[in-house]
Design brief:
three-stranded antiparallel β-sheet; two-stranded antiparallel sheet; 26% helix; alpha+beta; 95 residues
Length: 95
């Protein structure tokens, strides 16, 4: 059964770092079964495979899926506990 989470992803793009914050439906059982939870989340959010880099806990997209050169890291993952919380987050621009 899917649960709603606020996913914060840190992105490194050359000299720049920024964060992407969104609500996302994820299956906690699938996350527990996944060999690499963060890679599973990134694939679910972005739709393409990611692999861990030599810099630890930073991920790149699979070159066969994309020409994206940015690095990604799951900064935080927080379960949204109620529909009222989800509505409040949407009110403040976190979709």
């Amino acid at each position: 059964m899917n649960k709603r989470y606020v996913v914060t992803i840190e992105i490194r793009d050359g000299d720049y770092e920024y964060f992407s914050i969104s609500q996302h439906q994820l299956d906690p059982e699938e996350m527990d079964k996944a060999e690499d939870r963060d890679a599973y989340i990134l694939k679910d959010v972005f739709g393409n495979s990611h692999f861990e880099t030599e810099w630890g806990r930073w991920y790149e997209t699979d070159p066969d899926d994309s020409y994206d050169y940015r690095l990604y890291r799951i900064y935080s993952l927080v379960e949204v506990e109620s529909t009222e919380h989800a509505k409040l987050l949407r009110h403040y621009g976190i979709y």
